[in-house]
Give the backbone structure.
Amino acid sequence: MGHTAVVVGAGIGGLAAAIGLSRVGWEVTVVDRTPELADAGAGISLAANGIHALDALGPGAAVRAAGRGQYTGGTRTPRGAWLARMDGAALERALGSPIVGIPRAELHRLLRAALPTGALRVGVTATAATTLRGGGARVECRTGSEPLEADLVVAADGVGSRLRSSLFPGHPGPVHCGSTVLRAVTERPLDLRTDFEITWGRGAEFGHIAFADGRAEWHAVLNAPAGVRHEDPLGVLRRRFAGWHAPIPELLAATRPEAVLHHDVAELATPLPSFVSGRVALLGDAAHAMTPNLGQGACQALEDAVVLAAALDREPGVDAALARYDAERRPRTTAVAAAARQAGRLGQQLTHPVAVPLRNALMRLTPSAVSVRMILRHAAWTPPLTSPFAGE
């Protein structure tokens, strides 16, 4: 088709969208408000659908090589008893890829390396997007930057998307889900016995992802109102998780205080009426921010990128392609977001003294084959059959 696009946001979804568009012949510019991309972040688990999307886009092999497959682990109680074991080999047989754990910074670097030279511009703050009467779209920028015009604008500017607000001013926007998350990557390698674990207490979760270099990402999710911050977050976590099983104390001890990131968890609890407005397409968290309880947020953004590029390559015009993108992506992401919300309510957020042991008993009684099928519901996805990437 050979058009121009501006992608707003250089996160996982925005970079993936730019890669996909460039591979189908579009000239792409990516803008991000950050003056310098510092590769901040902790870690991420990419399920098979995310890996297959990366395969379609190109960087899949590099991500596999830099990551660590998750074959062992599961869900535990604070005392260390197993509620459910991970059967990573069964998932790989069923889906064609293991779940892969990788530092976010490394994933970002690999995605940026796949961009066309000169495509990324930092320090540009987009404030609004409009569709032009004669075709195409315009991105308005903060004072000091000229507006940007292109045949298509992709709004990938995250859960707090300014572009979404300008396009859907009546939408309530993101809401706090009742949880806050603290996370970090350890300073040094640890001798971990599993690739991935989560532990559920009452109103709290602690988990870790092991990396290929022996370090690990850990996260602690707590029921808390929005805006609560701590002067000594590691001290707070050591007290909150005192007495919880190994390797939780070891993970906290291997972390520098300044490495701890703290974010409230927000979601778009009210689905958008469309992922498209004129010549602007919303993608990733800007379109369907969801809670992290299924680990599907980034994977859904990667799926978005592949479907958008394939539609733009195969449909006879941009408007038809955007209609196809919306029709394919909105039902799936809405269903995954609802499932993630429910998983949080039955997992980390659960506090009732009767409900917690009942949930634990049911998890212990659930056969592993049933657990695998539950994961397959969301991770069993392959790129569109009409994808221009097929067979590459």
User: Anything to note?
Assistant: The radius of gyration is 21 Å. Residues 4-70+96-173+268-347 form a domain with the FAD/NAD(P)-binding domain fold (CATH 3.50.50.60).
